[in-house]
Amino acid sequence: MVKGIFISFEGLDGSGKSTQISRVRSFLESCGRRVVMVREPGGTVISEKIREIILDVGNRGMAPAAEALLYAASRAQLTAEVIRPSLDAGMDVVCDRYVDSSLAYQGWGRQLGFEQVLEINRLSVNGTFPDITFLLDIPPEEAMRRTSGKGRADRIEEEAPEFHRRVYEGFNRLAALYAGRYRVIDGTGLPGEVSRQIQQILKKELIKRRGGV
Hints:
By secondary structure, the chain is of the alpha/beta class. The chain has eight helices and five strands.
């Protein structure tokens, strides 16, 4: 059986990932694809419990290393329970964040270092990495403006502007390092235009595979 396509979406909070992920799911299904949509941290019963710990504003004293390990634990469960079996069954997986978020947020944002966070996550995903990663690129200032109006911030969103600037730098470095799978999209555009760009990229990918469009 031909494996499904593993697609991840990355970017700062407020970059518009949720909107585009929903549109990608609809697009792939319109092409006759079977699609599984998951989020990080979360996506399984165990992973959702870990998510609550990570994002709880009452846990402001969490050590950066503990945070990185919790994200990796949530990811390990999601990958083993949902992502890998779905791909093996020929289904496409669309994931709201994956390893690259840990590299950007804990590696650069928390300043734990790229190599250290990558090593933790090599164990957690056991070789399962995205085929395509869409980075919705918006300036940190715009991202913070968007998230400030949505209500109560979680523990990550309430971090200082400098933290989010480091995360932004991290994503840009990852896009250069993993240029083969990264597709950087201007997230400041209208949702419809962003969606059109993403769909054009996916059409080309599907043409390469059996049963393309």
